[in-house]
Automatic annotation (TrEMBL):
Pfam families: GFO_IDH_MocA, GFO_IDH_MocA_C3. This is Gfo/Idh/MocA family oxidoreductase. Gene3D superfamilies: Dihydrodipicolinate Reductase, domain 2, NAD(P)-binding Rossmann-like Domain. Residues 130-239 form the GFO/IDH/MocA-like oxidoreductase domain. It comes from the Bacteria. Residues 8-122 form the Gfo/Idh/MocA-like oxidoreductase N-terminal domain. GO terms for molecular function: nucleotide binding. InterPro entries: Gfo/Idh/MocA-like_OxRdtase_N, Gfo/Idh/MocA_Oxidoreductases, GFO_IDH_MocA-like_dom, NAD(P)-bd_dom_sf.
Length: 344
């Protein structure tokens, strides 16, 4: 083992695991070990990253690494992450942190007892566009936020162990709660299973934010012809749209809105006349830096200097509490209060 090198094991060489291996392999003084039970995936990893070490189990390499990235299917997150944390290894877990509140609490507790860093992969909190959007919200440019609408849609990538909410909504829940510096207090859900009979593949999740006195609606789908990654913020003064699929104008600010007009004729009261405002559309310049690279570099920095991650395990626990509440809301058909949350 070379002095000054950080050794990281990536467990799971699937969609996200392969991206982590690519990014980590590009970072200076980082040596990567790919762990996967599937020999075909290991052969693929070896072909792309000949310098990477290969292993079929984490136990075989745990003594030789400083940190672990867990990129397995969500149902395996807890088992793998507990093994890494129990060994005192700093651990980054892809979203969602776990598939139950109890498991997420176990990971946070194990991290604290072993004094090992636990970080969750809420990648969009490391996205320059999302950080710019937060600055716009905080500046008051948009005025009071009336509501937020998000859409995360695509065709396919059906999961076997979680529904579309647990798969896609963690991104948007983390984005909106990051913008407000507040976790939602209640949720209601509409979800539909269109293909097969196991998991919902289209859903709308309503999130209530008490301190901000507003709400957000999160639309997620595995059954959409186009890939959509969009956040729309409607303010009293202006509106903003963040489109992650845009190449050059990821954020647009619209000087546009609707104002109730005074009613002069009582007979016309039922018409609720409106005054519409139309103005300029502006787009701030946002230099691009791959969010996953920013996130993984931050993780490596935390491993090296012992600092607390910007998205610590307790942040992942907060999101899992919301996801768990969506299960109850979906089954009950009503609005569900979200349980007590760990302070971030």
């Amino acid at each position: 083992m070379a002095a000054g090198t950080t050794y990281v094991a990536v467990v799971g060489y699937g969609y996200w695991g392969s991206k982590h291996v690519r990014v980590l392999s590009s970072l200076p003084d980082v040596a990567v070990t790919v762990v996967d039970e599937n020999d075909h995936r290991l052969a693929e990893a070896a072909g792309h990253y000949p310098a990477a070490r290969l292993a079929t189990s984490l136990d075989a390499v745990l003594d030789d690494v400083d940190a672990v990235v867990v990129a397995t299917p969500p149902s395996a997150h807890t088992h793998v992450a507990v093994a890494a944390l129990e060994a005192g290894r700093h651990t980054l877990v892809e979203k969602p942190l776990a598939t139950s509140v109890a498991d997420a609490e176990l990971l946070v507790e194990t991290s604290a007892s072993r004094q090992a860093t636990l970080m969750v992969g809420h990648t969009f909190e490391y996205n320059a566009a999302v950080r710019t959007l937060k600055g716009i919200v905080r500046s008051g440019t948009l005025g009071r936020i009336l509501h937020i609408d998000t859409a995360r849609l695509s065709l396919g990538r059906y999961q076997s162990d979680v529904n579309v909410i647990w798969d896609l909504a963690p991104h948007d829940i983390s984005i909106v709660s990051y913008l407000f510096d507040e976790m939602p207090s209640a949720t209601s859900v509409w979800a539909q299973c269109n293909i097969g009979s196991r998991h919902a593949d289209v859903a709308h999740v309503r999130l209530q934010f008490e301190r901000a006195n507003t709400h957000a609606v999160v639309h997620v789908s595995w059954l959409n012809p186009n890939k959509v990654r969009r956040v729309t913020i409607v303010g009293e003064r202006k509106m903003a749209v963040y489109d992650d699929m845009s190449d050059n104008e990821r954020i647009r600010i619209y000087d546009i809105g609707v104002d109730p007009a005074e009613i002069d004729d009582p007979a016309s009261a039922h018409a609720m006349p409106m005054t519409y405002r139309f103005g300029d559309i502006t787009s701030p310049y946002i230099p691009f830096d791959e969010p996953l690279r920013v996130q993984d570099q931050h993780f490596v920095d935390c491993v090296r200097n012992g600092s607390t991650p910007n998205t610590p395990g307790r942040r992942g626990l907060d999101i899992v509490r919301v996801l768990s509440a969506t299960d109850v809301a979906r089954d009950s058909g009503g609005t569900v209060r979200i349980g007590e949350r760990v302070a971030s």
